[in-house]
Amino acid sequence: MNQDDKYQNRDDNTAPAAVALKYDGKRAPIISATGTWELAEEIIRIAQENDVPLYENAELAGILARLSLNEEIPEELYRVIAEILAFAFHIRGKTPDDAHPEAGTAADEP
């Protein structure tokens, strides 16, 4: 099956979506990439090539895909996104402080 056949009868209301989030540890995560169909596949390919953990949830991706680039995630999604980020850090054996060492705690200071 070639790419043209794969998407020939596609319905844009049920398009597979991929969303990339950027989290700096200081603000809410922001949308850094979003796309459907071929662009979604490209986002996933780039994430895999760079060992970025993936989380598959079509409903959540569909909600996030409606947001604009560089837009913060809505407050209603903080908890679910926090759980996903915590899991992503955990499976890599890291903590948010490992990704952002400048965000140390007061207990780290002399």
From TrEMBL:
Originating gene: flhB_2
UniProt entry keywords in alphabetical sequence: Bacterial flagellum protein export, Cell projection, Cilium, Flagellum, Protein transport, Transport
PANTHER family reported in the protein's UniProt record: FLAGELLAR BIOSYNTHETIC PROTEIN FLHB (PTHR30531:SF12)
Family annotation (Gene3D superfamilies): secretion proteins EscU (3.40.1690.10)
Pfam families, sorted: Bac_export_2 (PF01312)
Gene Ontology CC: plasma membrane
Protein family per UniProt: Belongs to the type III secretion exporter family.
UniProt-listed InterPro entries: T3SS_substrate_exporter, T3SS_substrate_exporter_C
Domain of life: Bacteria
GO terms classed as biological process: protein secretion
This protein's name: Flagellar biosynthetic protein FlhB
Purpose of the protein: Required for formation of the rod structure in the basal body of the flagellar apparatus. Together with FliI and FliH, may constitute the export apparatus of flagellin.
Organism the protein comes from: Marinobacter litoralis
